[in-house]
Hints:
The chain is an alpha+beta fold. It has helices spanning about 5-10, 35-45, 75-80, 120-125, 135-150, 150-160, 165-175, 185-195, 205-220, 235-260; strands at about 45-55, 65-70, 85-95, 100-110, 115, 125-130. The protein has two domains: about 5-150, no CATH class; about 160-260. Strands 1, 2, 3, 4, 5 and 6 form a six-stranded antiparallel beta sheet that branches. It starts with a helix and ends with a helix.
Amino acid sequence: MRLETQEILAAQAPAALGNRADNRVSDRYSFVPTDKVIDLLEKEGWNLQKARQVTSRTWNPETAKHHLTFAHERMSRADLAVGDSVPRLDMINAHNGLGTYKLLAGIFRFVCSNGLIVSERDFGHVKLRHIGFSEEDVIKASQAVIENVSKLSEVVDEWQGLDMNMGQIRSFGEEAAALRWDGDTATEMAENLIRPRREQDKRSDLWTVFNVVQENLMKGGFSNSDTGRRARPVKNIDKTVTYNQGVWELASNRAATLSA
């Protein structure tokens, strides 16, 4: 493991350096060492960019759920065929029995410093329970996701070529708002989700609309005019994955409709 990686983990997600499971897990629990998966990813050219973990008063911080994001040293913007984005890998693991090991494909957009996690349905994923499997299973499954990441450029190219009218954009925003809010609140928040934050995002192709909605859904920063309730940034690890993948799947379904 690179020294830089160790320093990031020690400061932001020490559980990723853990070498044992929490004392409260069952005897059937199989420990998945995050550091060994990191070693695999680094050998494949993936280097740690960001790390975080759950904070809890009742669980040991050395075994807590953690979320790590990796960038490939040779996979540039040109490889993804999008001027402001590059592929990412997101790893989620825990050593306390409160989560499975996951490795998910993602995209990072430079213009807004925003990370996307894409749909498991479209690009596959690694999701292994901490019961009855070997390290070889983790390595083999992880390599499969790594091989799929390069295919993201094909989807992005397609979405950039699909134009949406205002009615379709509003409908997409409403569907995305329903992932996070209920009823009238979702309807109100939908208008905020489709509002671009920067000039270069004032376009109507599916790729741009998707990015605008995803960024607003995750970052919040706006209020419901009726209730005054403010949308806060999403920080929960599980909700980060759920909302990201939900918006991706909505866009994927929309692409199928627009290209029909």
